[in-house]
Give the backbone structure.
Amino acid sequence: MTVITIGDVLDGVLNRLVAAYPDADLLTEPTGQEQTPYSFVVRLSPVEQKPMQNRRYRRTHSAVVQYHPSLPETEESSQAYREMYSVAETLFDILRRIVVPGGLVPASEMSYELMENSLLFSVKYVLDIYEQAAAGVSMAELEQEVHTGNDG
């Protein structure tokens, strides 16, 4: 069984963005400074894991992709909004499935909102996680005698 980590999900999202926007700046943590135009900030938050039956868990990865348009806030705002709408449409398309070790993972929820001259795109991926069975303590060897009615 392939183990899929939180980093694998982040890499799956990043790889889709790099393929669609090769010239954009791509960060996985906010810098604390004003973001440069035509850039993405991607973070996974929160990740939840809930128990199911036996040794199975359902893990939900929530990714937030923040996009800063190429037009500065001082440019005509309608162009910046059109650009963000276009990027949102592309994100719906490219993030509907991501590639992780073992195959494709479909998105379970996607949404976006525009805030402070940036696009916030949210997506969730749900994975079933199986805990490996612990190696049990092996029993000592048993000898078995078979007696038939002729053993006298």
